[in-house]
Amino acid sequence: MNSTSFWEPDWKRIQAPLSALRRQLASFPSPPLRIMKVSQLDADLLDDELLETMKEQLWSAFSLFKPSFKEKFKPELALALNLIMYKFSIYDMGATYGSQLQNLTYRNERKHSGGLQSTATDAPLTRTQKIAYGAITVGGQYILERLNHVVTTQGWGELPEGNIKKKAWNLLQKTGSIFRIVTLINFLAFLYAGKYRSVLERILSMRLVYANRNSNRQASFEFLNRQMVWHAFTEFLMFLMPLINISKLKRN
Q1: Cα separation, 99 vs 93, whole angstroms
Q2: Domain boundaries, given as residue ranges, for the chain
Q3: pTM for the whole thing?
C-alpha cells in the first residue's frame, strides 16, 4: 500500500474550497501600496535633463554640417535619439533611466487589482504595453512636431473660416485644450493618490513602484546646504556694501 495514500482523500476534498478562496482573494481589502510622489516627479525631471543633455551632444556632433541640414532633419534626429533611449530603457528594462536612479520600475497594474495591490512580486509590463507606450510617446511626439511645423509654415490659423485647413486648425486647438484639462485633472489625481503621473500611464495601467522595496530613499542635502550658505552670504554682502564708504577707505 502506498504510504502517501492516507492524505489523498483529504487533499482532493479541499481542492474546491481552495479554488474558491483563490478566486475571492482579489476582493479582499489590502493595505494600499504607497510610492513617494516626489520620487516619481524627480524621475521625470531626471529623464528630461538626460534627454536635453543627449540632445546637446547630438546637436554639437552636427555643428560642422550646414545649419540648414540640422534644421531640416531635426525632428528625425530627435526621433532616432528618443527611439534609442526608449529601446534601452523601458522596452528592455521596464523603466526609464530616471526611474532607475530613483529605485522605481513600471509594473502592470491590471494584475494587481484588489487584494493583489501590495503583493511582494510585481507583474512586469506586457509587450503590448511597452509597444503602445513607445508608439505614443516617441512616434506621437514626432508626428506632433511635424504637424506643428506644417501648420505654422502654411499659416492654417490665418486662413478663412470655410477653409478645410482652418477647420482642422480649430479642431487641433480644441483638442489641445481638452488634453490640457485632462492632464491637469490627472495630475491632481496623482497628487491625491500617487499612482499615475500621466494620462498615458493611466490608460495603459503602467504604475511606478519600487524596484527594491527594502531600499530606502537616500537624499543628500550637502549641495542644497552649500547653496543656502552661499545665498545667505551674498545677501549679507549686498546689504553690507552700501553701508561701506569706499572713498574713505581709499584715503586711509
Answers
A1: 11
A2: 28-210, 222-251
A3: 0.72
